[in-house]
């Protein structure tokens, strides 16, 4: 089978990537553990995945890798994992926000450069990728993928010529990168983790026996039975080696941060703890805030699964209105699922989501969702509740309205595609057919992040870094 | 690729099958709608699936079919569905309780017999299959599968020789079948649905435009946008044809029924309504009963996903103790998922389920599960809650203890493998490490089924039909 | 992936099947050797293949099998072969002459019957299959495939009820089968080979160390390093068991035979020896006869590959006209090859066959082919030679003209599709554009078979057995 | 499925690549024609293949590509070809001589660079690739493959910065490349073909209607029904564009050439004409020369298929000894074929090749082969002939003895692995067990190439270009 790939898309928001790295100082193979680590991060990207490993005891720079389109459980066979021999490795799951959805763009990127071999896994989006690409191209660089990671790799390679160690090269390269990146780099004898100075995307450190682990989210540590050590700080680079264990470089650390609040609201798994704040708690708080700020008399609070559930619970706890379940979600949708055509009687929403009529019939329902992007799905879900007999449907959104696009690693689209842009809340309410509508207040966001600084660009149009002059999303798609 | 298949197994309980049939009198193709219908029934069987269709306007008896190992979304391609032209069809999803897990055993069974072609989809287990098989074999029958459906097909074929219509043959065959069966038979011009006299397994009728639908559960009707007409009654046979619409045959209907209460407790999707009782309501009631009968002072009620959630909600509603979420389930496990080995640090339970530490730490937790089979999983889950900081873990089971095996279409194993057999509740509590343990009282079961008669064999050892003299489960596995 | 199969067809003649069985008395696994045996017989069928094995030391009747659509090298993986543990086994390669090309029809057929398990591989076509099928159907039999082998299996099963051994049952069943069959039956402890009384299809016996082998052609014995023991005689049944080695049953042997002369002319591999006559020699003789009976003055004799080459050599040896090569055949066409559409500039013939211009330009060429069926391919090949600069093209056919269909295991079509039916040789010559045309004389055929009796039905319309009253080819296709 | 690839290897010689490009000025899609073109070149590489196309009327630089491991007929589906919309394209088949056999190394290479997108297909080996790679690496280049084509692409990209057109960049890049290359470059609006100054590898131009074609061999032109225009000359670059048709650049053309004589003796298809010399004629001449220089009294001349056949015919024509066929080759070996293990009774040679006993028994046989590399296969084949009853086996080789490795695009190994190195012909004869042995005389080679200059490095150790200082074969394998 060949690889002319088709894009699989739906209406929701998408995170672009999850990264996972491991270095076993005792020499045990890591591929299989990386497999389970990626499996735990599968929610961060379902289009492609890959694992690259190296044996620090073997011939220097010998890297084995395996990548493919699809879910972790579809791409890797037992035989693949058996072949991936090595005690240092890096893995990646991908959903494409920039760069086409093709096998060429699957990560980790494995490459030969001046000092041997390098494997790279990246979560984020560079704002200055086009400039950097153009600059490199003017020097005669060639690009075989459309992903930012290739730009990063180039900079590391160029710096490596002038520096005496891989970590120095990574550190120097970081100085040129503008945007969001949580990065794992595997050099022949070191595993390096780095997070952009604003800390847009998460990255944490774990430990299991005599092995260190880097992962996008702490849930991946739980899955493999590793203990959580700490988060990589915004701007920090950590270098893992048997000689020095974990070494920290904080040259780029700064006071101003820009964590993505949507990691808490939607992207991350609720059982993850990011930068000291539990994602689950964050959602409970969002629900409580909504109950305080947008109260309504009703019989039942329900969440749109999965991310709306915790917020719904928070709303229920605060308001005293009973929590319930209104939806059954069909989780068997895979990459090859054949979607209903517009012309058919079946609809995409109904195939994936069904209403529990007995739970909602005759009731005034408060429905909590994490966000409204274009509004098309909300419209349908409200209708389904009403068809199922709900007397009233009050929609509460556990985030402020989206007004601006995101350039830092999510696929929040341009303003003209956002239902909330240039519309009043009343207008949106009418479009989606709800009896009332309430959003989380912008000033509540600090409560969700435990007071940590965050990016609010998609709500305010003011990002911690200037947005790119040109559209970086999809430009190089081939 | 060839088909030497391996068995994929886990610890839980399994339903064996889901069936779906459709007859479009207007002549529209039905394969794609059957695809979505099977998708809605995927929870009833994930090992193999298949669709067979026929064109009632085309050459008589021309049946096209497509089957394979795996999930609905893995087995069928767009191209497959495009080729399955026909306005009458039947589909099946399978988990094997009897018969090996091989492609040969995938359904629907398509066969040529005296009167042309027949396709058959079956959910259930015949108690007298070995005798029937032996009897047929003595007459020189050959068996190419190890599934009961082949025995049923033989009987229909033999009866058809002596009768004047397919429905008469099916009706006569039913008289010889002892056990559980919900059956859909597609003859060249008719779609026939039948349910055993005790009604062990569900089967219902739906309608969409000028098409009739038969399905294991009503959730499949919702998914395709069909309206629910009614359940097929225990012992009833319905014949769908353009001439007469739906025709009912009730010769085998009887007063005594034996519905499987576990359809309500565990197997069915909560959004289904079976024999007039909502599965969701049934679970809520189970939770309420537990709260009444096994009260305990605690801070939080949680369900083991997915089936424990509704019962937990019921417990919360009745007791006033707040409902919460304690677990995150990783739903990306597919047929090809590589399971952790015993020797590895990763464990099967932890890879699929993680605890929300922030939700349970320092709390007294009531954990609701639908059942305990061997007890190995419960043991691990209780430990995980405690490791996550739960002060107390009180386990409540929304069904009575399993003491006896099931011979009617589920894989409840023999007594010696059941933790509750020959053990007191206190002994079980100690084994699973809970602070207290309570089961649903047997006398509460009628409340769960809306007062309808049901089978309680796995709790009492008294089944509506005598169990088979020999073990029917797996005997013919090749 | 599912199995809605498409028929892959071309213009030539096709053999329907090859069979291979092995019994290792020392207990070694046979699957891998069967794999190479089938590989040697691949020319006899490229649509599907399968292997079934049993362990005579293991639990009685435990049969493992693996089948699939495609070539031997595509269907079986190393993992498949590793799983097929057993010291007795049977394999099959198939091209469909009767029965649709679907996975359901792939052989060996594995079935449970009164006395346990049976695996069956069959090459041939029963003339009375429809009657037998109807008869069985009237007794309530069901058919899950459209292949004759299922009819044979039924008869064996029915006889087994009344007899004391598998071989007796096979022998009795053979008495009811009319038509062509070379059969290998694997019972739990015996391997049985049988050939119809006319010996239409070949079957031979080999030996390697302490193992016996049955194979359609002797080339398969060479491939696995086994020695040739002898042919199974027309009408003979041989029973292989550790107790008695090879036991022969000749009850059905008769004087009148009906070997297929096309095994020598076209189907079999030239390195096979069938019933004591070398296929290669047979073709050399055919060429010599053509040279004697249809001489022509020319510069070069060439064969249409592959089967025409040996006859061309014979023509050259007899006539003294130099032998040459005129064509290059592209052998990389597999089951999934995308054929040129009529509307495209590329043509099916040219994609597979190219002319060596330097070999033929300016020359008078004698082109030897094994047969002309519909004439469409011959037409193109003659044109290609002329376009390449051949001054004259004299076509010589190493068989008499096809005038009647074949009902005994090849796909020679009905008379109205045969170019030679109702046409003079001169008319055919004009259609194919040759400068002269000569066929092998009917009276020469005995020389090709070493004087053995053969079937000449496709030339004379007089078959050793009456043709079926109804068309048996494709009737049951589903 | 993922892509941890395994190397499939056998004993013979291998060509590394075939290239095919097409530009349809009328705007018709070319992917399907490229498919047939690659199919005709399949003998030049069976490990991987790929097609890249672009629509010159569409958005500039939008390239679609499809690649995979395996044969042309395995890699591309109908759906793939349908998606590859574009009227300009390039294709590639690959066998790896340098660079590992992984999907990453499959060609065409598609890349973005300073001026948009470029696709590149390359046949050959650069002698200075390591130096060029090192040089580029010192400037910070990164390499994602281990193939020379990436080095070429880099040079084109770097030149493009300084030049005003793609062809100028290609021309300048060529000046830095030392070694063998037949190259097809697709820029957004031009198709460029180039051949190294020595012309090691072939490349020719064809035309069909209003489309131009570039192909490794003329047989690919025949297959798609294009007419042969002319060969690209050694050192020439041709630029195909709708404005100027074919434009020639001969700046690098020189008098000294180094055609690979093994293209004639072994690699190319006999129906190809390379640089004005028919491959078929070349082999006939080789056979005639052998008959003149190494005569022997015998009964039969046979060729080792396929490449030995034409030489055997030449020997027969010259000597008057009858030509015959001694071997039957099994052509169904695909990429996934499971090879016999050393420990098994089956052998790799016998599985692929069988002797026609009747053709050779009792005869004195002259066996013509194209070359002897390590001698292991020759040894077996001679034995097989003797076992089949040949009285004498006289081996004649249609090339001089291999004494030195090849660095220019074939896999002739190092001297210490070559049987002829440091051995007399008599010693070799004894090793392979022949009754006599003769090689083609070195001074005969000009006759085979029609007097054209050629490389005789593998016979003399004197290559037209100095061999690389370091081993270029396999160095960068990852």
From TrEMBL, chains A, B, C, D:
Pathway per the UniProt entry? Purine metabolism; IMP biosynthesis via de novo pathway; N(1)-(5-phospho-D-ribosyl)glycinamide from 5-phospho-alpha-D-ribose 1-diphosphate: step 1/2
Gene Ontology biological-process entries: 'de novo' IMP biosynthetic process; purine nucleobase biosynthetic process
- UniProt EC number: 2.4.2.14
Pfam families registered for this protein in UniProt: GATase_7
Residues annotated for Mg(2+) binding in this entry: 307, 369-370
Signal peptide (from-to): none
Q: Where does [4Fe-4S] cluster bind?
A: 260, 406, 455, 458
Q: Which Gene3D superfamilies match?
A: 3.40.50.2020, Glutamine Phosphoribosylpyrophosphate, subunit 1, domain 1 (3.60.20.10)
Task: Tell me which residues make up the Glutamine amidotransferase type-2 domain.
Answer: 17-243
Give the cofactor binding note.
Answer: Binds 1 Mg(2+) ion per subunit.
Keywords from the named record: 4Fe-4S, Glutamine amidotransferase, Glycosyltransferase, Iron, Iron-sulfur, Magnesium, Metal-binding, Purine biosynthesis, Transferase
Which cofactor(s) does the record list? Answer: Mg(2+); [4Fe-4S] cluster
User: EC top class, in one word?
Assistant: transferase
Protein family: In the C-terminal section; belongs to the purine/pyrimidine phosphoribosyltransferase family.
This chain's function reads: Catalyzes the formation of phosphoribosylamine from phosphoribosylpyrophosphate (PRPP) and glutamine.
Name this protein carries in UniProt = Amidophosphoribosyltransferase
Organism whose genome encodes this protein: Wujia chipingensis
């Amino acid at each position: 089978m060949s690889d002319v790939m088709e894009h699989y898309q739906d209406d929701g928001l998408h995170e672009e990537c999850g990264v996972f790295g491991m270095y076993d100082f005792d020499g045990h193979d890591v591929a299989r553990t990386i497999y389970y680590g990626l499996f735990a991060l599968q929610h961060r990207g379902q289009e492609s995945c890959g694992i690259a490993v190296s044996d620090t005891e073997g011939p220097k720079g010998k890297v084995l890798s395996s990548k493919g389109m699809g879910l972790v459980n579809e791409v890797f066979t037992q035989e693949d994992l058996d072949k991936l021999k090595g005690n240092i490795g890096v893995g990646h799951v991908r959903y494409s926000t920039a760069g086409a959805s093709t096998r060429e763009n699957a990560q980790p990127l494995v490459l030969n450069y001046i000092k041997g071999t390098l494997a790279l896994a990246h979560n984020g989006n560079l704002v200055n990728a086009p400039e950097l690409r153009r600059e490199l191209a003017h020097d005669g660089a060639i690009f075989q993928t459309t992903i930012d990671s290739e730009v990063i790799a180039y900079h590391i390679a160029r710096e490596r010529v002038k520096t005496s160690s891989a970590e120095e090269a990574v550190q120097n390269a970081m100085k040129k990168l503008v945007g969001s990146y949580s990065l794992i780099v595997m050099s022949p004898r070191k595993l390096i983790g780095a997070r952009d100075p604003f800390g847009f995307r998460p990255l944490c450190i774990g430990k299991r026996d005599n092995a260190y682990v880097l992962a996008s989210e702490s849930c991946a540590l739980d899955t493999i039975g590793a203990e959580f050590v700490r988060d990589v700080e915004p701007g920090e680079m950590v270098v893992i080696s048997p000689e020095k264990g974990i070494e920290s470089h904080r040259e780029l650390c700064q006071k101003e941060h820009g964590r993505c609040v949507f990691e808490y609201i939607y992207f991350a798994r609720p059982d993850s703890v990011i930068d000291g704040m539990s994602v689950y708690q964050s959602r409970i708080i969002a629900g409580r805030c909504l109950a305080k700020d947008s109260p309504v008399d009703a019989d039942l609070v329900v969440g749109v699964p999965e991310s709306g559930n915790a917020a719904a619970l928070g709303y229920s706890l605060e308001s005293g209105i009973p929590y319930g379940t209104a939806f059954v979600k069909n989780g068997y949708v895979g990459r090859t699922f054949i979607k209903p055509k517009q012309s058919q009687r079946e609809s995409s929403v109904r195939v994936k989501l069904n209403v529990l009529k007995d739970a909602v019939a005759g009731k005034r329902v408060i429905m909590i969702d994490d966000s409204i992007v274009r509004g098309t799905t909300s419209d349908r879900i409200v209708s389904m509740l009403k068809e199922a007999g709900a007397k009233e449907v009050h929609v509460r959104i556990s985030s402020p309205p989206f007004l601006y696009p995101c350039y830092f690693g999510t696929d929040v689209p341009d303003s003209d595609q956002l239902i909330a842009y240039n519309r009043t809340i009343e207008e949106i309410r009418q479009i989606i057919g709800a009896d009332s509508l309430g959003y989380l207040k912008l000033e509540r966001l600090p409560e969700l992040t435990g007071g940590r600084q965050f990016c609010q660009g998609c709500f305010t149009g003011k990002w911690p870094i200037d947005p790119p002059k040109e559209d970086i999303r999809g430009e190089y798609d081939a």
